[in-house]
Amino acid sequence: MENGRWLDEREERAWRCLQFMHLRLDGELSRQLASEAGLSYPEYLVLVALTDRPEGRMRLFELAKALGWEKSRVSHQVSRMGERGLVTKEKCGSDRRGAHVVVTGRGREEIEAAAPGHLRAVRRFFIDRLSPAQLEAIADAAETVLVAFDAGAVD
After folding, report:
1. Number of folded domains in the chain?
2. Integer Cα distance of 29 and 23 in angstroms
3. Is residue 5 in a domain?
4. pLDDT for 77-106, tens place per residue?
């Protein structure tokens, strides 16, 4: 391997376990949201990001950054959600090319209805399976990686 080095056993175990845990959690949470709330996991994530803002609005590029998605993915997701009446797009007054994504009343109702079941699933599949020390270690590790991304230190 010319441009890098192979992972050692400990590194490979950590990386693969993280990957598979993430895939399984995403799958289980997606199924829970679809069956109990009629929302896709990406819809839920967009609604969470928007409703975390007091005004319930974000520029498209801000939403993409918050979710870690490509701008085109966010744009397609927002279009689909707009067709369902969960969000709307509004022109940005300060930038004629830009737009705000705004959660609608229906979007707020949908996330408020979905949140209790989703939180129960998060607890069942993740939180309740870990000790406080394990939760702290995961949070510390994730924050370290995220800070590096935000600082542009990961290329």
Report:
1. 1
2. 10
3. no
4. 999 999 999 999 998 777 777 789 999 999
Burial class (CB in 10 A: 0-12, 13-18, 19+), 74: buried
pLDDT tens-digit map of 7-64: 999 999 999 999 999 999 999 999 999 999 999 999 999 999 999 999 999 999 999 9
- 96 assigned to some structural domain: yes
* pLDDT tens, residue by residue, 53-64: 999 999 999 999
Domain assignment present for 30: yes
* Count of helix runs (H) and strand runs (E) in the chain: 6, 3
CA separation for the pair 11, 148 (Å, rounded)? 19
Look at the block and give the residue holding tokens 């705000």.
100
Range of the domain at 94: 10-150
Packing angle between helix 41-51 and helix 9-37, nearest 10 degrees? Answer: 90
**Dihedral sign for Cα atoms in the order 7, 12, 18, 22:** positive
Please indicate, yes or no, if residue 108 is contained in any of the structural domains: yes
Q: What is the mean pLDDT of residues 138-155?
A: 87
Q: Are the C-beta atoms of 69 and 58 separated by less than 8 Å?
A: no
